[in-house]
Amino acid sequence: MKKLIQALVALFVVSFLLIFWVDKLNSSQGYSGGNTITVYNWGGYIDPTLIDQFEEETGLTVIYETFDSNEAAMTKIQQGGTSYDVAVPSEYAIEQMVEDDLLYKIDHSKIPNLKNIDERFLDLSFDPGNQYSIPYFWGTVGIAYNPTLLGDREFNSWNDLWADDLRNQILLVDGAREVMGFGLNSLNYSLNDTNKDHLQEAKEKLEDLQPNIKGIVGDEISMLLANGEAAIGVVWSGVAADIMWENEALEYVVPEEGSNLWFDSMVIPKTAKNIDGAHQFINFMLNAEIAAQNTDWVGYSTPNKAAMELLPEETVTDERFYPSPELTAKLEVYENLGKEMLGYYNELYLQFKMHKK
Amino acid sequence: MSTSTIIRFENVTKQYDNDAAVLDNVSFEMERGKFYTLLGPSGCGKTTILRLISGLVEASHGKIYINDKLVNDVPANKRQVNTVFQDYALFPHLNVFENVAFGLRVKKLKNADIQKKVQEALRFVNLEAYENREISEMSGGQRQRVAIARAIVNEPEVLLLDEPLSALDLKLRTEMQYELRELQRRLGITFVFVTHDQEEALAMSDEIFVINKGKIQQRGVPTDIYDEPINRFVADFIGESNIIQGKMLRDFVVQFDGKEFECVDQGFNPNESVEVVIRPEDLEITTKEKGHLKVKVDSQLFRGVHYEICGYDENGNEWIVHSTKKAVVGEEIGLYFEPEAIHVMRLGETEEEFDARLEAYDDQGVENGN
Amino acid sequence: METRSRNLYLIPYVLWIALFVITPILLIVYYSFIDIHGNFSLINYQKFFTPVYLKMTLSSFWYAFLITAFTLIVAYPTAFLLTKTKYKHLWLLLIIVPSWINLLLKAYAFLGIFGTFGFANAMLEVFGIGTKQILFTDFSFIFVSVYIFIPFMILPIFNALDKLNPTFVDASRDLGASGWTTFWKVIVPLTIDGVKSGCQVVFIPALSLFMLTRLIAGNRVITLGTAVEQHFLVTQDWGMGSTIAVFLVIIMAVIMFFTGNRKRGL
């Protein structure tokens, strides 16, 4: 017993010493409020050399942390365990965070590079006047498909997915808004529709799609599609870009009925400690050259007009990732439907998932 | 081989892997309706014999017959023998009734028959009222009886008992000795009883097999084994003995401790080296002058029915005496014994040779007597 | 003095239980009565008794049952053979080792093995059966779950078999029972406690499996665990998530009660 207690005490002492040491190391390397900024972003969503460049230019130290879902990011920001100075959530999460008073207003005077952003992507419904957020990347939801597995088939309409000969060929991303959204779109309803009859109709239509669905999966969808596990996937454009980078045979299309337009935007959470640094970082990322380099590395669509001019012609004219104005007009941003409606969406989505082929 | 033979071993050897044989070329016969005891120290092979009979282990060499039928290839569950195990091995998940009924249920008897037979068996071991008890609620002695009932309910021709009394306290053990003997008489079947307790063996058996190091050292009725042990091991293992080196000068005269003594043994070569056995209770304490031997008392223990006195003679030999009379430690006493008390053992004699020698001079004795 | 120092020793345990056992359960119960607007209500319980959730509960039960049954079918003979081997503890260790590997890693490995161009289909090709869809089927889900749970089932059964006094088997043989009868009438009843704890250890987590339902079953299998995850992470309807959790706790308690070990002595 005595030995056990001694061992425990020793363990505690060692643990405290380690914590103390880490703390000291951190402060000696300048990891403290004044000259560091903490960035909270999606995994693999920045060219790492840009962080070094930013540190060099500003003398600030960047602590970079990643998340894999908006919900997880929101929860962590809300709890305030770590004080994040810049975060990059999606538009519907931003709307929610504004509602919950989790964000600082952004001082536009400190972001001169804001002029680089295409006006099409400013002043949108989820954040009028861009008071709280500055766009980082944007994209769509569409159909990624593998023509080598399907012959010369084309997908212009969401309804093409319902074809009888596509049994067991389709993978879907596991997201209620995405799946319900294309269900609604296929019926020519808005993907922000709140009419319960329309939603019910969309759910029933999706249930008819079940025989064609191979699986409803998460991030592994890019690996599965790249490996040819399935011929068709309903994915975000960013995921499609990843897959096409791995397997050039794949194609991506945004169906004619319209689809979702999404934004990942930079925000400053209320827990931020280095608000000045945060503004510096946002402004840095909007610099035309920096944004161009980052776009090239990440492979998503940039809202930065100045950067687009620096990017190769074939990149920015690629209609798969920079859709024509006519199509863009049909794209919709997810609106915050309120918890109750979101719950209803989820309920229907759950029912759809449980519907057996 | 007589028709009354029920178990016969022919040159049976049991060996595990390449280890030394647990049982080394053993042959014997057992007769129907007798109480046999396999006696020996632990690890001598006595339990192996039991398991060979029950079929729980297979012989490496040799043949085993039950009822004149070769059973080497008959599995345990097909042999008409049952065992009472050392720790009883009563199934803890079954109550008393179901434990006893186990063998009958396996044989798919009718429920009514099972009911009747189980009750009968339980009555036999005086446990009528305990049918519905759990095993955990039974005392050691009761468990013992359940184990016996579970075995005999199958009406075996041979009942094997593997040290069944070793877990009981002394008083209960003595009681059970009577009960087992009585049970064997009433059932009239063969009992093969394994024990390392010589008193138990002597008290209960019709015949004892003394076993050591995988071999049967001596077999016979209890009195023969006690009075005429074949060798030092048997003499030492069965009861307490004073064993001393000696020389057989001629028939009926043996020399030990530097003196010549009259004895009843014969059939040895002149001047053959022998070992002499005298049981402690055959030694009588007397005065120095009257005794055959002069012994200085070294220690004395009170054993209840007798004193155990230990002393040394002038040649330094140790003598143990069981006497109802008290001696005084440090005093010299005389020890007296009759010629019949001396038992002379030939060195390295086998059982066959021993039996042959005894028989030879028994006949002679008859001739002489007449 | 004695008792007071003993009570002092108890403080950490009481604190632990209060903080990490009682508080979370109370919180879950509390949240289960809160609707999405933060008001006290019974709506979540009403919702649980709608066909969607009842169907989900039923399907959770069905899959958990299948997983437990197949795990048992594989694990019992394995444990039985293990006790008969010479280096049984080494073999046991070898069987347990895969459970040290991260679950996610194993699931990803199976994505590769069961894929259209994976090892399993390559084998099927070799045997002339041809490529089949293995991934995202009930089969793959149950197979992988069984694979993952097997060590947890083997361990208690192995311990029970190892502890089993071999004379019980001898006694049964001696009383005329064949190997088969001995197995069913003696060995199984005497190791049933190991089987029960093995089943608990498998059934209860199997009831709320969620990651495998997506990775291996492609959401073709929906369990209560999936729904809890969804409500906490996506819908942010903690109330409904908690309500399902409450039912899971109740179900588990009931299972524990019915498979509980009634001590028999010996």
From TrEMBL, chain A:
It is found in: Periplasm. Keywords: Periplasm, Signal, Transport. It comes from the Bacteria. GO terms for molecular function: polyamine binding. One of its GO terms (cellular component) is periplasmic space. Its main location: periplasm. Spermidine binds at residue 92. Pfam families: SBP_bac_8 (PF13416). InterPro entries: SBP, Sperm_putr-bd. One of its GO terms (biological process) is polyamine transport. This is ABC transporter substrate-binding protein. It comes from Perspicuibacillus lycopersici.
From TrEMBL, chain B:
GO terms for cellular component: ATP-binding cassette (ABC) transporter complex. Signal peptide: none annotated. It holds the Pfam family ABC_tran. Keywords: ATP-binding, Cell membrane, Membrane, Nucleotide-binding, Translocase, Transport. Residues 7-238 form the ABC transporter domain. One of its GO terms (molecular function) is ABC-type putrescine transporter activity. It comes from the Bacteria. InterPro entries: AAA+_ATPase, ABC_SmlMolc_Importer, ABC_transporter-like_ATP-bd, ABC_transporter-like_CS, Mo/tungstate-bd_C_term_dom, P-loop_NTPase, PotA_ATP-bd, Transp-assoc_OB_typ2. This is ABC transporter ATP-binding protein. It comes from Perspicuibacillus lycopersici.
Automatic annotation (TrEMBL), chain C:
InterPro entries: MetI-like (IPR000515), MetI-like_sf (IPR035906). The keyword Transport applies. GO terms for cellular component: plasma membrane. It comes from the Bacteria. It comes from Perspicuibacillus lycopersici. It is a multi-pass membrane protein. One of its GO terms (biological process) is transmembrane transport. Belongs to the binding-protein-dependent transport system permease family. CysTW subfamily. It is found in: Cell membrane. Keywords: Cell membrane, Membrane, Transmembrane, Transmembrane helix, Transport. This is ABC transporter permease.
